[in-house]
Amino acid sequence: MTAITIGIVDDHPLFREGVSRSLSEVDDFVVVGEGENSEDAARLAASDRPDVMLLDVSMPGGGIDAIGEILSKSPRTKVLMLTASEEIGTLSSALQRGAAGYVLKGIGSRGLAEAIRTIHQGSRVVSPAMHAKILESSLRAPDPMPDSLTPREREVMELVAEGLSNKHIAIRLNLQEKTVKHHMTQILLKLGVSNRTEAAVKWRQKY
Fold this sequence. Notes:
By secondary structure, this protein is an alpha/beta fold. It folds into two domains: 4-137, 3-Layer(aba) Sandwich (Rossmann fold); 146-206, Arc Repressor Mutant, subunit A (Orthogonal Bundle), CATH 1.10.10. It is built from ten helices and six strands; from the N terminus they run E-H-E-H-E-H-E-H-E-H-E-H-H-H-H-H.
């Protein structure tokens, strides 16, 4: 059986050590490195290229911001956010940046192992508690429409609807690609959708 290699980055040593010890007891899991901040996460991605990286949201340097750096250094690594944050906006930002999963720190060792296996196999994982929050929020909130977008976000959305990538949108609007990514994060949140395809569909329905 091929081992699944794992990196763990969290700024709470006792928690990190406990997770590492628990995962190391699973036959086909191998913890290849640990860290406590975004710089450590980038270093682990570059040096060890783990199959799965467990990442805290609130660690020094910011877990959300570390996702892109990790994936740029090790594109095959699957990022699993392991966090106490139950904010829907944080979940949306993490998935938009490229995280493959988002689970809460109250998860048990068996559930965490299952989540790791699931994202390693190519599927996405979101904690059931977060699914419930998303559903509750969608039931309370009115259906968001493109009218809530800023003028710049509307320009970006027009080009998304035409099928342009972030890179080509940046060129067309004379922006940096990371600025376009930021606009896309805000657009997805405002429209209440999870990806650019859904955003384009909602845009076309309105316009």
